[in-house]
Amino acid sequence: MAKVDRLGWTAGLSFNAYGASVGIRTNDAAILERVPEIMPPEWERAEAPVVDSLFSLWVGKSASRQGRRHYHLLYSGAARLTRTLDIDEVFHDLENYLLLTVAYWAKEDHLFVHAGVVGWQGQAILIPGRSHTGKTTLVSELIKAGAMYFSDEMAVLDPAGRVHPYPIPLSVREDNGTCKYSPDEFGATIGEEPLPVGLILVTEYQEGARWQPRRLTPARAMMALLDNTVAARKDPKVSLPILGQTVDGVAALKTRRGEAANVAPKILRFMSAQDMNAKTT
Question: What residues make up the domain containing 132?
Answer without folding.
Answer: 111-280
